[in-house]
Specification:
The protein is α+β, with helices and mostly antiparallel strands. 15% of the residues lie in helices and 27% in strands. It is built from 20 helices and 77 strands. An eight-stranded antiparallel sheet has the order 21-20-19-32-31-30-29-28. Strands 27-26-25-24-23-22-33 form a seven-stranded antiparallel sheet, with no helix packed on it. Strands 1-8-9-10-11-14 form a six-stranded antiparallel sheet, with helices on one face. Strand 53 and strand 54 form a beta hairpin. Keywords: Disulfide bond, EGF-like domain, Glycoprotein, Membrane, Repeat, Signal, Transmembrane, Transmembrane helix. InterPro entries: AMOP_dom, C8-3_MUC4, EGF, EGF-like_Ca-bd_dom, EGF-type_Asp/Asn_hydroxyl_site, EGF_Ca-bd_CS, Epithelial_Barrier/Signaling, NIDO_dom. Pfam families: C8-3_MUC4, EGF_CA, FXa_inhibition, NIDO, VWD.
Length: 1276
């Protein structure tokens, strides 16, 4: 696995513009589709900041790094921090171009992204410690690479040191991951100084933070080990949790693998084809419910009440279906619903087609469920399954035949033909579709006929035959010649053999619908069939037969099979002989199925002569009068009454004609249409709103307007003939508007615009962007828009004063007060207090004042080292820093003993070795001496050294640390007690072999270990030898990351020989962790002081008692005790450094300083102290002071009580000032073993209880304390 992902111009990356704008705000990247999950929240954008941060919500660059979970102002901020540091976000980017931030978005919508998405998917699967519940395939990846970031206020010698690192954000919409990549030596700073000075920055503010924060009020967060310390720089050389040096990998959610409902919808949306090509071939929706009811191309389902929808009987050529839904509200009954208001939709898979039904359920039904039911993304559903608005709907043309056969052609021509036989009603597209009908003699005088059967076929479909049954009151149906039990049907269609849909609207009716959209309805009425043919306009100009040529011209409807046209005004006799009989079918063309013994000839009678219309007569006046009364002038009614001698037959003809005419008229009546395309209404609070809608009617019917819904209070409605207007004063109340327009035929259309409520306060501006995901979706009828606030305001509705301090994540220097300015101050409307001492600036960006660059070198005599907010002096090699912390004292390397073989001469900052007579300095070792005239090898008996002395006489000498033997040739070890009293031998010619450690003839600053002829040095715990192998220097456990604290929130603070675990300033020890306070939370009370350690008998006898005025015993706590100990330690250090009275009896040792540095670690209270003094507001404290580790050697390790008494007394003024108290009495606690002072009662002994909240003594010091305790207990 490779560490870094490709980046830079060669990888096609974009670069964040190098403008000053992005020095204080971050660069926005939109996350497409449904965003990505970051634990408890889904995000739709990220912001890339120059200082090594990725923010999800805020766009303002947070300046001061803090570990996550500690500061209240960061707990709500969702962010990723691969290396959040105090970075130069200005000149290094804008002017010099040294620093850069690259980014690259990879998406599965871009084919060129495929290779990297595959790599991200593969890396993710490999790096996961446990498998995911479901498969993972990255769909969106963001790679951000920060290159050559410099520290803020970098010194000149760091101009070429920059940090380079990378973040990779990976998601598939369900799972989210991030990867932090650190190339080898990519991190070159954690503080604005060279690494040798990091120890001075170990407790400074603004050290880089690495980790992430979910923004869920601190519940889920992660701080990398070493985050917030100077040691974080080493992360590029540490094996990360991805089991690779420099790579770290994190999962950013806790999904169980189930898709988020919105993401399920989006994934469904992505998988669907663009419907625009396919919807061109789908039947358009009828415009009102009654059109859908009478248009047999659709079947209406009543069972889903209150949802009422029609569905196309047959699929499109591509298998699509059309669903059309209608309003069932009484106000807008039957109006077509469109879109996300309950509207129907095109279906990719026709649900009435059996072989497509399963796909319909998994695709269309599931898509609706995912987008419209489980989530609020119904608009996406309708983009892939659009809702038809009936704009292209054309009603089918009806033609019907009924009674003593009367015909209404497709062009509306009405005539009568009484042939007896089987005839071609219509032949469409030269045999593509045919409808044939059979007649029989009607009851009566034998001069009339009625329809008794019909047969139809389209293309390769089944032949459907319907006929009167033997009782002539019901129907019989044959499908491809086979009897079909049509009584099992209902008014919902059933598709037979995939070629014809059939239904039974009522007990005596039968409907057949063919794939082309042609339908035939047969109904048994009084012993006859009435037949209705409905033909789509696609058949216009392509029909012939008794139902005429359909071309909107009734004049040519009497087209004969041979192409001649009978005049449209021909009488019924001409129509009978010269048109009707010519369309009789023959055996070859007949669609009918015949019973045994029957044939076409059975029903044919060409010689039959009916009554003709022009010969209309009644056999008697009684029948005529009855007919005239029943028919009320209807010619067809009169004719049927006369021809059948049955008035009821005529009445049925009239009733059927009236019904069919009304149904046809209803079908052809289009509803009104809104001219005003009003999809949204923008309502602003406290502004007058006026909404007008205009409508027109395609049939020029009279219009009636109504407005329903949740109307605004005091709304005013104004109507006129073609429009309605609603006026009201905008409030923040919930409203819904439904405009309904109805024509005088009862056809209805309605319009329900979405209400966009702009309720912004303080002159905020509403954001009407369609991509605004932050609008409040109260319903699909009303949105409360997000507001763009003017300067100084914030909140969803700009209702709150913007707290610029909080919005900028407390931008002031740590500990500096941030003051929010009142409106119209904007995001920058805050003011910081003054920078702390040692810094300059505006209180936000406080630049360290480099005292070392001043002309006086900071007052240091030799080396000045700048530190955060201050400086420190140091000395060059060969010098020790003096007690004044400014000047340096030369180290006399020649005392108490040097490492020269013969003579040592001290120099400023060093020393020189020289040799005795007859010797010279060894060229290969300037500390060693060799004879000027050595003896010849093999010509002497000297054990160590042979040289030519006076008069060239051979003489023997021994190496340093040895004594010549009695024979003058050999060298032997001499007991140091004898050597110390001898004056016989010179130190050069006859060196004494001594125990350098016993007689303090060594340079060790801590421990001396004697060896034969020499010695070695070692250090007490917590120290190590310096390069000179004699000086012990403190081990910085914090810098070397060898400390161990109780909780990771604690910071390591180095001490001489040990360390403490403390809470960073501003944090408090609460529930066993360092925690920050809430926004308005008060600090907890200070922790109590720890129980003192048990002293040794020697330590106890060196204690003094200080009586302090101005304190109650209840006021004594850990912080106060720390101040007290610091004051004591400072006083002892100053006194001992200036007077030298504190020196131990042993000769001067090699130390790193020219004085003994005491710290609070060496100041101890006796058990039982402090205690209440006899007087009010007075306490007594008994203390003793240890020497720092390694200083005392074998001498007593405790400062003499008389010296301690003198120290406190001499520094009483400073001591009192530090504590803000008065010292009223000082005395020695124990005068001697037998006589005790007035305070000589046995000290109260308690087991020590370390208060971890403020410090924990660790490392070597803890071991020393434990050893002392065990020793004391053992002696007792």
């Amino acid at each position: 696995m490779q560490l870094m992902y490709p980046y830079g111009s060669s990888a096609g990356d974009s670069e964040i513009p190098n403008t000053y704008e992005y020095s204080w705000q971050c660069f926005k990247i939109d996350i497409p589709d449904d965003g990505m999950q970051f634990f408890g929240k889904r995000h739709y954008k990220v912001h890339i900041c120059r200082n090594g941060l990725l923010l999800f919500d805020s766009q303002w660059l947070p300046w001061w790094p803090y570990n996550f979970g500690e500061r209240w102002w960061l707990k709500k901020e969702a962010m990723l921090a691969p290396y959040w540091g105090l970075t130069d976000t200005d000149d290094s980017f804008v002017i010099q171009g040294f620093s850069k931030v690259y980014y690259h978005v990879y998406s599965d919508s871009d084919p060129s992204s495929t290779p990297l998405l595959k790599r991200a998917s593969s890396d993710t699967k490999r790096l996961l410690s446990t498998p995911l519940p479901t498969a993972f395939k990255a769909s969106w990846v963001l790679v951000v690479t920060w290159k050559n970031l410099r520290p803020y206020q970098y010194p000149a010698n760091m101009a070429n040191q920059g940090n380079t690192f990378q973040l990779v954000l990976i998601t598939d919409g369900v799972y989210s991951f991030t990867m932090y990549n650190y190339p080898s030596n990519g991190l070159q700073w954690s503080a604005p100084t060279q690494r040798m000075y990091y120890r001075y920055y170990s407790n400074s503010y603004g050290l880089p933070v690495v980790g992430w924060n979910a923004g869920d009020k601190g519940e889920r967060k992660y701080n990398m080990p070493r985050s917030g310390t100077v040691n974080i720089e080493t992360i590029d050389g540490i094996r990360g949790n991805a089991d690779m040096v420099g790579k770290w990998f994190f999962r950013l959610e806790e999904s169980l693998g189930k898709l988020n409902a919105r993401q399920e919808c989006i994934d469904w949306f992505k998988a669907q084809p663009d419907p625009r090509f396919y919807t061109e071939y789908i039947e358009p929706c009828p415009c009102v419910l009654r059109q859908a009811w009478w248009d047999e191309r659709f079947t209406v389902n009543w069972r889903d009440w209150p949802r009422m929808c029609g569905y196309a009987q047959f699929p499109s050529p591509h298998g699509w279906g059309q669903e059309c839904c209608y309003s069932t509200n009484w106000q807008s009954w039957g109006a077509l619903l469109v879109g996300n208001t309950g509207g129907g939709s095109a279906h990719r898979y026709h649900k009435l087609t059996e072989e497509l039904r399963a796909k319909h359920d998994s695709s269309d039904v599931q898509g609706y469920q995912k987008c419209c039911v489980n989530s609020d993304l119904c608009d996406l559903y309708y983009k892939r399954r659009p809702s038809d608005n009936c704009g292209n709907y054309v009603v089918p043309e009806w033609s019907w035949l009924w009674g003593d056969p009367h015909f209404v052609t497709l062009d509306g021509k009405n005539y009568t033909f009484n042939g007896l036989g089987e005839y071609m009603m219509t032949d469409a597209r030269d045999g593509f579709f045919q409808l044939q009908a059979r007649t029989k003699l009607a009851k009566g005088g034998g001069t009339a006929t009625v329809f008794s059967a019909a047969a139809a076929k389209e293309g390769n479909s089944s032949v459907v035959q319907v006929e009167l049954n033997d009782a002539e009151i019901s129907l019989s149906v044959l499908i491809d010649g086979e009897s079909f039990n049509y009584t099992s049907l209902s008014n919902e269609s059933v598709t037979l053999k995939g070629s014809v849909a059939v239904a039974k609207p009522d007990n005596n009716s039968f409907v057949m619908v063919f794939p082309s959209g042609i339908s035939v309805t047969a109904k048994a009425v009084s012993g006859a069939l009435s037949i209705v043919l409905a033909a789509p306009k696609s058949f216009k100009n392509q029909t012939k037969g008794l139902l005429g040529r359909w071309n909107d011209d009734p004049e040519d409807d009497f087209l004969t099979p041979n192409g001649t046209i009978l005049p449209s005004n021909a009488n019924s006799k001409d129509i009978h002989y010269n048109f009707g009989l010519l369309w009789q079918v023959d055996n070859r063309s007949s669609l009918f199925t015949y019973k045994p013994g029957e044939s076409l000839k059975t029903f044919e009678n060409a010689s039959f002569v009916p009554m003709f219309l022009e010969d209309l007569s009644f056999p008697n006046d009684t029948l005529r009068k009855q007919a005239e009364e029943a028919c009320q002038g209807d010619l067809n009614c009169l004719f049927d009454s006369a021809s059948t001698k049955d008035v009821s037959m005529g009445a049925n003809t009239k009733a059927m004609s009236s019904t069919l005419e009304k149904e046809s008229s209803s079908l052809k009546n289009y509803p009104p249409r809104f001219v005003t395309q009003l999809s949204q209404v923008n309502v602003t609070v406290n502004q007058s709103i006026s909404v007008s809608v205009v409508a027109e009617d395609p049939n020029n019917d009279t219009l009636i307007f109504s407005v329903f819904g949740v109307l605004p209070r005091a709304a005013i409605l104004r109507n006129n003939s073609n429009s309605v207007t609603v006026t009201w004063n905008g409030t923040n109340e919930h409203i819904e508007l439904e405009f309904v327009v109805t024509d005088d035929q009862g056809a209805t259309a309605f319009l329900r615009p979405i209400i966009n409520l702009c309720a912004c306060h303080n002159n905020g501006v509403c954001l009407h962007s369609a991509s605004n995901k932050n609008s409040t979706h109260n319903s699909n009828k009303m949105n409360v828009l997000e507001c763009g606030c003017l300067n100084g305001y914030t909140g969803t509705l700009c209702e709150s004063d913007l707290d610029a301090c909080e919005a900028n994540l407390n931008p002031c220097y740590p500990g500096v007060k941030c003051i929010d300015l009142p409106p119209p101050a904007n995001i920058s409307g805050y003011k910081c207090g003054p920078c702390p001492n040692g810094f300059t600036g505006d209180g936000s960006k406080c630049r360290d004042f480099d005292e070392c660059l001043q002309g006086s070198n900071g007052g240091c005599s030799q080396v000045c080292i700048n530190t955060p907010g201050s400086f420190t002096c140091d000395c060059r090699k060969g010098y020790l820093l003096k007690i004044d912390q400014r000047n340096c004292d030369d180290i006399n390397e020649c005392v108490p003993v040097s490492d020269c073989m013969h003579k040592c001469e001290n120099t400023n900052g060093g020393y020189r070795c020289s040799c005795d007579d007859f010797f010279k300095v060894d060229p290969s070792d300037p500390k060693n001496c060799i004879p000027e005239s050595p003896c010849q090898k093999g010509k002497h008996n000297c054990q160590h050294i042979c040289y030519l002395g006076s008069n060239k006489i051979q003489q023997c000498a021994c190496r340093r640390g040895y004594l010549p033997g009695d024979d003058g040739d050999s060298c032997k070890v001499l007991d140091w007690r004898i050597a110390s009293n001898s004056t016989t031998y010179s130190s050069a010619i006859f060196p004494l072999d001594i125990d350098e450690c016993a007689v303090n003839e060594n340079r060790c600053s801590h421990k001396c270990n004697n060896t034969e002829g020499s010695y070695t040095c070692s250090c007490v715990d917590g120290f190590r030898l310096d390069a000179d192998n004699v000086t012990c220097i403190d081990i910085d456990e914090c810098l070397e990351w060898t400390f161990k604290c109780q909780d990771s929130s604690q910071r390591c603070k180095n001490t001489q020989g040990s360390y403490k675990c403390v809470c960073e300033e501003g944090l408090y020890w609460i529930d066993n962790a360092c925690k920050g306070l809430g926004k308005y939370e008060k600090p907890p009370p200070p922790p109590p002081a720890p129980t003192p350690r048990i002293p040794s008998l020697i330590e106890e006898r060196q204690a003094i008692i200080i009586t302090i005025k101005g304190l109650n015993l209840s006021q004594w706590n850990l912080p106060l005790e720390q101040v007290f100990k610091d004051a004591v330690a400072d006083s002892v250090t100053t006194f001992c450094g200036e007077s030298r009275d504190c020196e131990i009896t042993a000769p001067r040792k090699r130390r790193a300083l020219d004085y003994i540095l005491f710290t609070s670690d060496q100041v101890h209270l006796l058990p039982g102290y402090p205690e209440r003094a006899p007087y009010l507001m007075q306490i007594r404290v008994a203390i003793y002071v240890q020497f720092p580790p390694g200083v005392a050697g074998d001498s007593p390790s405790t400062l003499d009580k008389n010296i301690l008494l003198t120290v406190i007394n001499s520094s009483r003024e400073n001591f009192e000032k530090a504590l803000n108290v008065s010292v009223v009495n000082l005395k020695i606690a124990y005068l001697d073993r037998s006589t005790e002072s007035s305070f000589t009662e046995t000290p109260k002994v308690h087991h020590e209880e370390t208060t971890i909240g403020y410090f924990i003594i660790g490392g070597a010091a803890a071991g020393v304390i434990l050893a002392i305790i065990l020793c004391v207990l053992g002696c007792c």
